[in-house]
Structures are given as structure tokens and as C-alpha cells.
Amino acid sequence: MQHYDVIVVGGGPAGMFAAWQASLRYSRVAILEKNTVLGKKMLITGGGRCNVTNIHQDDLLIAGIVGNGRFLHSVFSQFNNNDLIRFYETNGLKLKEENKGRMFPVTDKAQSVVDTIAKVLRQNGVTIHFNCDVQTVKTTEPLAVKTSLGMFSCDKLILTTGGKSVPQTGSTGVGYQLAAQFGHTTTELFPTEVPLTSDEGFIRKKVLQGLSLYDINFSVLNQKGKPLVTHRYDLLFTHFGVSGPAALRSSQFVVKQLKKQELVTVLLDVLPDQHITAVQAWLKGQDSNKALKNAWKGLVSERYLLFLLTEIGLDESTPLKQLTPKQIELMAQALKGFTFQVNGTQSLEKSFVTGGGIKLKEVDPKTMQSKFDPRLAFAGEILDIHAYTGGYNLTVAQCTGFVAGLHI
Ligand SMILES: Cc1cc2nc3c(=O)[nH]c(=O)nc-3n(C[C@H](O)[C@H](O)[C@H](O)COP(=O)(O)OP(=O)(O)OC[C@H]3O[C@@H](n4cnc5c(N)ncnc54)[C@H](O)[C@@H]3O)c2cc1C
After folding, report:
1. I need a labelling partner for 322 at 20 to 30 A (CA). Which of 36, 161, 269, 398 fits?
2. How many angstroms separate the alpha carbon of residue 171 from the centre of ligand 1?
3. Cβ–Cβ < 8 Å for 238, 350
4. Which CATH number is 2-190+353-407 given?
5. Which of 43, 95, 161 has most ligand 1 atoms within 8 Å of its beta carbon, as the pocket-test mutant?
6. pLDDT digits (tens, 9 = 90+) for 240-249
């Protein structure tokens, strides 16, 4: 049986950072990874370019970590996104900023991010066992780890097995069971950063399938019709509902609201910078002899314009001058607040991020250590922390990994 000072279960971003830090104090550190490569999920983020972190500072960074970001104040006081950027640059990988503070490697290749961390792990003598599926852990002295490659033992263990989303990348949720062997409990898991499904006629008939709306306001409404949350991002209509960053960011609010009601209303404002009276005046002020389709051309994409006209019962060939003030008002309202209902989200397996995880009150926020057994620590998506895409989840994974490895 091979013995290690520290075993890290999972070679994702959290595990790699944990192993790096642990290797600065312990000579025998190993990562047990069931895949044949490190960072399989990290490699597919940012469309294969790896959205390695987000440059937003302090409160803005925490605000991007919508699921329990406040738990991370102590972690970020020890290692944060600025330190991450410094880590990569010191190790030869320059990062660049894109819109909304998202940081990518200048190489535009996720592989160069993983290669950079892997190089640091090699330099610090971390052993990596690939094809090593951890099945159970016995809380004996030392800890006994049963894997597909046989038994290992260790003095300390860091669980960084990720959530349950996109299980093809290796994160299948086994880590929750391993944690349970130490008495840890898990909150209810739910999909976040996931497309929304809808049974509306225009979705079923695929009227808008493939249409992207850019920089729009997308709101999730409560039962009283008031916005619970509004996101200004891009939206994509699909054959099952809506996707794109605006929908993904809204998904956790939809999930929560669907516990109270069967259908949730969402609202689309495609002219977020204009007041409704200005929109109405603009609609009214166009060439009154022209058909609506031409009179209102250019305001929004033609496909969406024609869709809204149909939705409010107007014929695109009607000349503007034949419209009543009420009809113009209706069109302005549709542009500023088209509503439709969503009935769910795609599955946890299809979601980018898993909401819920190991209960945070069972974990020390300063060290990421288990409050039940000092030989155990956690980092990354296995915890009950989730964030918007845009580099926030990867920041959580790497920074909690750093702190877990530092204190183990
Ligand atoms: C398509 C997609 C796009 C994303 N885009 C973004 C983005 O733009 N920005 C962002 O911040 N986040 C994004 N995310 C989320 C981000 O990738 C994750 O939050 C992050 O990878 C979590 O890191 P982790 O180390 O905690 O877990 P993971 O990256 O899931 O790593 C866990 C590792 O543990 C291994 N493992 C699990 N169980 C065992 C076991 N029993 N034995 C051995 N090994 C095991 C797995 O094989 C895996 O390698 C995206 C996710 C997806 C799926």
C-alpha cells in the first residue's frame, strides 16, 4: 500500500492548487484523478480558451459568486484573483482581459493554463495517479483510500471532486459520499448556469430558434409580477427555450421560484437604455406611409420585430398611419417588456455548475478544513458555493484549493 502525507482526490483546478500548496510543506503529496488528464472540465470552459478568472475586485468579485460568496472573504484575504493572475504570469503565462472582466490566457488555449499548473506540480514533486477512481475512504489512522488502482493510505486528505454537472468530465458526485464517511452532509443539489425550458407556442413552433438578442435586459418575475432579478446580457432562443448568458445567469432564480409555482414568468426588454415613452414617440414619429415592417426597420432585429408584430396582432404590411395610439402603445410595451413563461431548466448533468454541496457550517472558512476531522479539507465546486460563469467558479476553485493546501 502506498502512503502519502497528503492525498488530493480530484485533479481539477481546486485539486491542482491544493496539491501545489501542500507540496510546499509536505514531501509526499499525490493527486488521485480518475481521468487520464488533469483539468478536464477546466479545458472546456470559455469555449476551450479557459476563462481562468475574473478581474472584478473585492465586493464585485463576491457579488459574482451568488451562491454563498460571503463565505470566501477569509479565503480571498489569503489568495484572490490578483494573486491568481500573478501566479500565471510568474509561471510564464500571460493573461488578457475581455468584456465583463473575464480573464483568458493570451494563447487562447485552455491547455496552456493546465500545462502551467502541471509544470508547477512537477517542479514541486507532486505525484499524479491517473485512471485512479477513488471509491471509499476509511477514517482510520492513517486514512485508508480504496481506489480502482488499489489501496492508498495518507495522513491528510483534501476532497476536490467537483459537483455533479457534466459528469463526462469526471465530476459525478462521488465526493459527497466520501465526505459522508466523515459525517459531512450535503445541501440539496440543483442545476445553475443552465438553459431554461419553455412550453410556449412560439418555442414549440421554433419561431425564434437560433435568434440571438444582444445586450438586453432579462428579468425573472415573482408571483406579483415584480422583477426578482434582472441581467443585462445576451440571450439565445433555442428549440427548447432560451440559453445564452442572460438565461444561464437567471437559472438559479428560476429554479428557486419553481419551488413555489409551476410556471415562472420572464420578461425581455430589448431596448434597456430607452424609456417606454421615448420608444413610443420613436415608433409614432417614423414615416407614416410606410408599412410597419419598413417604418420600424433597424430598431431591433427584423426577425424579432416581425415576431412581436404577430404577437400583438398587427400585420407587417399595414401602413403606420393606420395604427391607433393604443396599438403603438402596445408595440412599445412589447419591445420594453415582452413576457413569456418558463417551466424548468435543463438537467443538473447539463448545467455548467452545481448549486448546493457540502454544508458550509461544517467547514472552517479560514482553512477550508473539516470541522469534524482536522485531517480532512475541501475545495472547489464540491462545496455549497456557486457562481456565475465568467471566471468566478474557477476563481472559487483555485483560491479555495490554495487555502486548503496551505493549511492542511
Ligand atoms: C461547459 C462548462 C463551462 C464552464 N465555464 C465556466 C466559466 O466560463 N467560468 C467559470 O468560472 N466556470 C465555468 N465552469 C465551471 C468550472 O469549470 C467549475 O466550477 C470548476 O471546474 C470546478 O473546479 P473543481 O476543481 O472544483 O472541480 P472539477 O473541475 O469538476 O474537477 C474535479 C475533478 O475530480 C475528479 N474526480 C471526481 N470524482 C473522483 C473520484 N471518485 N476519484 C478520482 N477523481 C475524481 C474529476 O475527474 C475531476 O477531474 C464551466 C463548466 C462547464 C461544464
Report:
1. 269
2. 6
3. no
4. 3.50.50.60
5. 161
6. 999 999 999 9
